[in-house]
Amino acid sequence: MNDKYNQLNHRFRKFYPVVVDIETTGFNHKIHALLEIAIITLKMDQSGWLKKSNIIHLHIKPFSGSLIDTQSLLLNKINPFQPLRRAIYEKEALNFIFDIVYQEMKFNLCKKSIIVAHNAHFDHSFLMAAIKRCNINNNLFHPFVTFDTATLSGVITGQTVLAKACQTIGLPFNNQKAHSALYDTLKTANLFCTLVNKWKKLGGWPFKK
């Protein structure tokens, strides 16, 4: 097999996949704030198997003027004003994340990063709103394309809920730990890597007509 098929930049058309999960103060990206963000960068080994690389988890201060939906806080169990969170401003968090992602993109010879998330529209919309709010001009992430593991799981496993999709393919999932950005990102990354690697193992990659 040509070695290019074992290179990350060739696998996703020079898109660099970054697994993301965000916890927020509500469901409207225009008025509700980020509270937590976790990202996991990915890599390929010499045999072309997709694996986790860097893991980043940050607590974020709500932006000025943002609103809070108490039902969301009951779900994610976050107190935005708890000082022990050691939260930072969202621009500081985004700059830190972008530095890591840029280095990974450069190392893997990719041109643009792409968000991988479960029900990706939610995380993508909040991240794009934060990037705009912070006046970050060099947005590393594709402005509208995502890899949604809910869709991929629905096609491959018949399940769209993260917990059920993980359990269907043999990945453990603890519902008591769900709705934590770090835990959900780890599970989403494991799910995505497993689905991509399973497709390769079945002979689906490289694609043959």
TrEMBL record:
UniProt remark on cofactor binding: Binds two Mg(2+) per subunit. The active form of the enzyme binds two Mg(2+) ions in its active site. The first Mg(2+) forms only one salt bridge with the protein.
Names of the cofactor(s): Mg(2+)
Coiled coil: none
Active site (catalytic residues): H179 (proton donor/acceptor)
Residues engaged in binding Mg(2+) 2: D21, E23, H179, D184
EC number(s) recorded for this UniProt protein: 3.1.13.-
UniProt domain Exonuclease: residue ranges: 16-201
Keywords recorded for this protein, A-Z: Exonuclease, Hydrolase, Magnesium, Metal-binding, Nuclease, tRNA processing
UniProt site (Important for substrate binding and specificity): F27, F122, F144
GO cellular component, one term: cytosol
Residues annotated as binding Mg(2+) 1: D21
Superkingdom in the source lineage: Bacteria
Matching Pfam families: RNase_T
Family affiliation: Belongs to the RNase T family.
Protein role: Trims short 3' overhangs of a variety of RNA species, leaving a one or two nucleotide 3' overhang. Responsible for the end-turnover of tRNA: specifically removes the terminal AMP residue from uncharged tRNA (tRNA-C-C-A). Also appears to be involved in tRNA biosynthesis.
Assembly notes: Homodimer.
Protein name listed in UniProt: Ribonuclease T
Species whose genome carries this gene: Buchnera aphidicola
